[in-house]
Amino acid sequence: MKPALTITFTRLLSGGFGLLVLVGLGVLLFLGFSGTRGNTQTLLSELSDGLIETVVDQIDGQLQPVETQLEYLARAVGADQFPFDDKKAVSLLFEGALAATPQVTGLLMLDHQGGRVWVDRDQHEIAIDSWLKRRSERLELLMQQPPTGSLWLEPTYSPWLGKLVLPLVQPVYRGPRFVGLIISPIEVSNLSDFVSQLSTQVESPVFILFDSDQVLAHPKLNHLLDEWVDQGALEGRSSFLPKIGEIGDPALQQIWGPRRKQDPFVMPENAQAFTLNDSDSRLLYLIRPMQRYGDKPWVVGTYLDPKQIPDVFQRMWDILIGGLALVVVILLLVIWISRRIGAVVDRTVAGFDAVGHHPLQQVEDLPGSRIQEFNRVSLAFNRMLKGLRENETSQRLFGQYVPQAVAHELLQQQGELKPRQSEATVLFCDLEGFTRLSQQLEPSRLVETLNSYFSSVVDIIESHGGVVTQFQGDAVLAIFNVPLADTEHARKAWQAGCDILRRVEQSRFCDQQLHCRIGINSGELVAGSVGAKQRLNYTVHGDAVNLAARLESMNKIYGTRLLVSESTARQLTGEPLAYVAEAMVRGREGKVRLYTLEKSSSASAGDHQNPEVDQ
């Protein structure tokens, strides 16, 4: 009696002894590794917090003094004893203030009466005039609705300065009365210069994003802005700051990409940390949102290669690698034996996988094995592969002589197709002047020409869902709706006929220009296998088939290339049909109304989007 649970020798050896070794050493590895991991995580998080805190503090140290300076100037100018109307006094005050804030480009004061005082650091220029000469919707709005305190505006391009600036606005009040504004524009280029110095200091690229997707400061920003200013590109932009994809920094460009993951070791308290991996590198990103400089948030951040972090991982890897090395040494013999046996199994599995995913001719036989069980599997696999190849060859040859749809149905019905009576559309296509052609060409050349022609015709018919049941000399008989059901069988047959005419007229077959005639009819017919027991042929019978053949022949009478019966035309609403005649057809009682392709559409027979049928 076979036991309910069995196990192979390989599993017993590798699993039993391997489990004992792994459990013992695994406990030691876990205790040492988990302790080291916790210490490493704490250390890396503190280092990351310190790094991003340094960056944020440095940026605050660059911008906060400007706010403090403007608040001081607003109090000084707004004091009752200050000669507010004396613009020279204001300019002298501003000149002194600029000395304490080198990051500021200049100072501008606007009063509610239209006066303007501008003190420029770089040009050592003092301008006193009326700001109303340089009217600005933004300035007028600020003068009408002054802020209650310091207000950072969005970065903007100043045509007057020819620079991209970050304006800080400070209202001036004399008592409760608003008297003017002090504006301090900080050049974005100065901010990028500062960020470049900061990047050198922290040994990693520092950046500032505005509204998450625009670059406010970056070591590469100034070069890009200089190009835009030279080209005059800033004035035409809806956003004066470049997008993260325009700065030329691949690492920054993918910062919000879907591949970012939370770093398992770096979890700072006051910042966000995540990693991005690609085939070439792994980067650690540290970012912190800042909401204090305007309505839209800034994102201050940096990215660095984890290798730049002090090598705190070394202790972890020392413990892990040492333990694993010990496990490898102990299990070496077991692994070697298991791999030898596993290689045979893998080769067998790969063989079965190849059978399912690759052409059988590309699948290689399995080699024999010294292990009897594996050798029997190899022999059985090779016998199976040989049988599958023979079956595939039979199916391929079968498909060349039987329509694909019929072959599929034969396989589903165990080789027996019962006769079926149904409504279908028959397409009969015959070459014009075939007798003359057969007299002109060598037999081999004639067959080659016919095969080329038939290939094109069959491709078109099958692309429209039709089935070719017979090749009668130079003629093709095709049906639609049998054996594959299709409610649009009449329209599909019509479209196939139009496409055949177009293809034949526009192509040359083995350097021969051919012409064909087509008859299409819809009606009841019988489809089934006909012939002797040892050789059957799937075909269709009925008056509908005969009429389609008659219509093909009647093209010669009316000088047409495609004739459609009334039963088919009734189902072709919207197709470019033209009435031909009402004629008697041999073998039928009564007359048959005949239609053909409109002359206006005959040049593009494949186009099926034409006016309504003219009936």
UniProtKB/TrEMBL annotation:
Keywords: Membrane, Transmembrane, Transmembrane helix. One of its GO terms (cellular component) is membrane. One of its GO terms (biological process) is intracellular signal transduction. GO terms for molecular function: adenylate cyclase activity. The lineage of its organism: Bacteria, Pseudomonadati, Pseudomonadota, Gammaproteobacteria, Oceanospirillales. This is Adenylate/guanylate cyclase domain-containing protein. Residues 339-393 form the HAMP domain. The chain crosses the membrane at residues 12-33, 316-337. CDD domains: CHD. Residues 425-552 form the Guanylate cyclase domain. It comes from Motiliproteus coralliicola. Signal peptide: none annotated. PANTHER family: ADENYLATE CYCLASE, TERMINAL-DIFFERENTIATION SPECIFIC (PTHR43081:SF1), ADENYLATE CYCLASE, TERMINAL-DIFFERENTIATION SPECIFIC-RELATED (PTHR43081).
